[in-house]
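Quiz preparation item.
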């Protein structure tokens, strides 16, 4: 019997993307509440409890409520909210994090889907901490730009409808200026760094895509590694395959620019090691689709691990 999949919040940005990825599949049964019953709490509870796996595309409090309604029924969860990303009882849904992570996701009842920015940051930082190159107390700086769809329906409307009273006309803007972005705790939890990073996100006037930059001073790292050493550590970590690939140094060296829309429409992520050997500096860059590997695509990858697809 095909596993029953229920998307709680299927009409939000992430939910719609997941539906588009799943609606033609024959190896699952995609459950959907009738439009006229979507605000009925008892109907929602029944769907949550009847599902084999519920994918939560909800605000944090609503996600916690959904888990409380159906966890005892044996329903398995993939939560796309921030609510459980730093909870040790939940498997973090980034299979490439470690050799054991894929198996943990596959067998888990509770899986937290990573945030978009943190997917890129963790992909760059965690392997270097694990290899002993990046000290846990290194003063990490993360600079990133995302397509505006990452902000959900309200930001999409503000960017696309110039007639709104709250329309945004800027071509690019920085935000989270208090340095308190919601992705920081999960970045610290899943990289092993102990010093709070300075994270400065921004949004550009393009719908999908993302670049996450982590610049490093090599002489502040353990053993004063070369740019080649840093690349080798990342390449070794991701050599077992998956949705993450490390671009060869020879290819990165010839690039005049990086396009944040490069990976739009894909569920993969590319990692670049940029700089000039011998200068003592390196800039690590993750390129991904904020709605692909950064959200809906990752949720489907986790679903496939959980159902053995």
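Solution:
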């Amino acid at each position: 019997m095909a596993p029953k999949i229920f998307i709680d919040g299927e009409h939000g940005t992430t939910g719609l993307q997941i539906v588009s990825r799943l609606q033609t599949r024959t190896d699952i049964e995609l459950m959907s509440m009738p439009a006229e019953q979507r605000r009925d709490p008892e109907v929602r509870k029944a769907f949550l409890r009847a599902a084999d796996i519920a994918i939560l595309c909800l605000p944090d409090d609503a996600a916690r409520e959904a888990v409380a309604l159906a966890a005892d029924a044996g329903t398995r969860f993939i939560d796309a909210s921030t609510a459980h990303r730093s909870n040790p009882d939940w498997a973090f849904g980034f299979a490439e994090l470690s050799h054991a992570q894929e198996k943990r996701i596959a067998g888990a009842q509770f899986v937290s889907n990573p945030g978009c920015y943190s997917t890129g940051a963790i992909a760059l930082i965690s392997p270097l901490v694990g290899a002993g190159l990046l000290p846990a107390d290194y003063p990490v700086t993360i600079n990133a730009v995302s397509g505006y769809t990452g902000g959900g329906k309200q930001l999409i409307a503000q960017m696309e409808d110039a007639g709104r009273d709250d329309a945004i006309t800027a071509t690019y803007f920085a935000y989270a200026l208090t340095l308190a972005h919601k992705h920081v705790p999960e970045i610290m939890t899943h990289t092993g760094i102990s010093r709070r990073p300075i994270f400065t996100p921004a949004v550009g006037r393009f719908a999908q895509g993302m670049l996450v930059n982590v610049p490093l001073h090599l002489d502040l790292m353990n053993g004063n590694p070369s740019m080649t050493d840093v690349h080798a550590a990342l390449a070794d970590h991701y050599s077992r395959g998956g949705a993450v690939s490390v671009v060869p140094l020879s290819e990165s060296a010839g690039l005049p620019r990086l396009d944040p829309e490069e990976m739009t429409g894909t569920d993969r992520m590319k990692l670049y090691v940029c700089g000039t050997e011998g200068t003592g500096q390196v800039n690590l860059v993750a390129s991904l689709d904020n709605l692909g590997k950064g959200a809906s695509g990752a949720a489907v990858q986790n679903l496939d691990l959980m159902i053995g697809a």
